[in-house]
């Protein structure tokens, strides 16, 4: 995993721990959008929005029957 992915995962864990320890209701939502040039935008909604652009490389897709 790239260093950018590690930053995203650390933020998700931090926000989860904060929500879990909060004495009340909390909500977290994660969106991912494909960008050009082999990147994805990851948006974490948790009171505020935390935005990250992360490099990714497509893996070959399985055939239509799901075998392979």
Q: Can you characterise this structure?
A:
It contains 1 helix and 3 strands; from the N terminus they run αβββ. The chain has a 3-stranded antiparallel sheet with strand order 1-2-3, with helices on one face. It has one domain. The model has no long low-confidence stretch (mean pLDDT 85). A hairpin with a 1-residue loop joins strand 2 and strand 3. The chain starts with a helix and ends in a 13-residue tail after the last strand. It has 68 residues and is of the alpha+beta class. 28% of the residues lie in helices and 34% in strands. The longest helix has 19 residues. It is elongated, with a radius of gyration of 15 Å.
Concise overview:
By secondary structure, the chain is of the alpha+beta class. 28% of the residues lie in helices and 34% in strands.
Number of strands: 3
Main β sheet profile: 3 strands, antiparallel
Helix percentage range: 25-40%
Q: From N to C, what is the helix and strand string? A: HEEE
Shape: elongated
| Low-confidence sequence ranges | none
- By DSSP (H or I, 4+ residues per run), the number of helices equals 1
What number of domains?
Answer: 1
β-strand amount:
25-35%
The order of strands across the largest sheet is 1-2-3
Terminal Cα span:
24 Å
* Average pLDDT figure: 85
**Radius of gyration of CA atoms, rounded to a whole number:** 15 Å
Decide which structural class fits the backbone.
alpha+beta
């Amino acid at each position: 995993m790239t260093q950018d992915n590690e930053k995203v995962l650390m933020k998700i864990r931090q926000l989860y721990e904060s929500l879990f320890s909060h004495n009340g209701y909390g909500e977290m939502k994660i969106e991912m959008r494909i960008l050009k040039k082999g990147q994805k935008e990851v948006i974490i909604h948790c009171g505020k929005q935390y935005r990250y652009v992360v490099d990714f490389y497509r893996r070959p897709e399985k055939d239509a029957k799901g075998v392979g």
